[in-house]
Amino acid sequence: MDHRRLGRSGLHLSEITYGNWLTHGELVGREPALECIRAALDAGITTFDTADVYAQGAAEQVLGEALRPVRRSSVEIATKVCLPTGDGPNDRGLSRKHIMEACHASLTRLGTDYVDLYQAHRFDDGTPLDETLIAFDDLVRQGKVLYLGVSEWTAPQIRGALDLAGELGLRSRIVANQPQYNMLWRVIEPEVLPLCRDEGIGQVVFQPLAQGVLTGKYQPGRPAPEGSRAVSGGRGPRFIRRVLGGELLERVQGLRPLADAAGLSMAQLAIAWTLRQDGVSSAIIGATRPEQVTENAGAAGTRLPDDLLAGIDGVLGDLVDRDPAKTARMMDVMQGWSRPA
């Protein structure tokens, strides 16, 4: 497993990060979740991503339990704050009150004294940005957080936070951004990526497999495979429905000959594609079975030649979305992507 620096910070992450959105505590039980995390460790993955809102805290608990036997300094743990974790008006957002309380609750669930990376899960228009940044900075000063990041923020929002942190004289600054990024969804390329490269902010990208669609397991005109996210309970079907349109699935099947010729599975091809982008520090994978973890981790260290990259673009064509206005609107997909409700 290769490792990369997180932007210009001194922190190194494994090229593949294991994440547990929509899986642990929601789609899979405790034992399969523990097996997946053990498989990640066996594959050399050292970076693990979660959030307080995932399965309302259960995902953090499972991750903490699985990593308890591991030497703490040998792994990097990332979690997030902002999305609702309760019904109260202060159970969400990026106010000082919620950030402090949410961080302490996450540390308890994870069973650790600190997290390596603490991320603002979304931008909060309802809280003054200086309040948010000072609260994060205080957590860094207290040693409860080592590095700061954001997720699904636009380029102007990131720019504003960097400038304000400088004006306030804060010691800590944003060093990580967690956007959705894959062969189909490239909306960070026009604005977010150039800004982050200039400012030394590393990308830890999620959904490199586009909810599993880029694995090729969803066939046009056929029912979704048994046990897949599309037919599972919970919130999975809501998210994956947006990438199950017939035209999209047909284009994705056109990638199979390219993957075969490269000696890669379609999943490995898709993950390696995200890692080839300058500025990407790590790609987050999720799994419901250990063998998925092992396969996906095999994408680490893979370099894709230019003719293969051109072939991917030729297959996907006009279904690739590069609209920067959609940076924080992950459900706003192109016509032709979605299966009718």
Automatic annotation (TrEMBL):
Keywords: NADP, Oxidoreductase. This is Aldo/keto reductase. Residues 16-315 form the NADP-dependent oxidoreductase domain. Belongs to the shaker potassium channel beta subunit family.
